[in-house]
Amino acid sequence: MALLLSRIEFGVWSEVVGHEQPLHLVIGAHRRGMSEPVLRVKTAIASKTTPRCRNSDAGLRYHRALWMRDNAVRRCWVERITRGGCLCGGVSYELHGDLRPVVACHCNQCRKASGHYVAATQVEQSRATIKGDTLRWFKSSEHAERGFCSVCGGNLFWRRFDSPFISVWAGTIDGRTGLKMESQLYPESAGDYYDLPAVRVIPQSELD
Description:
Blueprint: E1 3-9, E2 14-19, H1 23-33, E3 40-46, H2 57-68, H3 71-78, E4 81-85, E5 92-96, E6 102-105, H4 108-114, E7 118-124, E8 128-131, E9 135-139, E10 144-149, E11 155-160, E12 165-169, E13 181-185, E14 200-201
């Protein structure tokens, strides 16, 4: 007799178990035995013997233990949230989803605004939540503006007027970023007091 297999996937790992019950009964049993719903269930038909879960209490406890394992990692897989802010805490932000690798910019405006070259990541503006009454925007060119805190002077953001994206200074992110610098802009404008990062040079037009 062919067994109905259900693969319960958690993004970073998965377990396969065999069931002799109809799929809707299997899913219902797992839901009753877990504190959270199954993320995804894929089905297939197999004719070979597989590890069995007979809807027993032991089986439900087993799947509950698997579900709870690495819970923090699985939540990050569902949606990554990155938090940060300025020096005084007057401006804070949350970025939802994956972030672009860091890009260094050596242009005169970035060096004047930051005191050094800028290292920034990027995200869609619709996935950025910014809070703080001290946030101010300075129109630094005909095409873009820069966001900073009016109390501590911390530089945080850069955005083009016609772009759905916003650049975020990587140094303002709280804790570890998980990001790497992969490219740089305008090395010809770099200061003479530092060496260029060992990453490729790209034109501004290559970025969104």
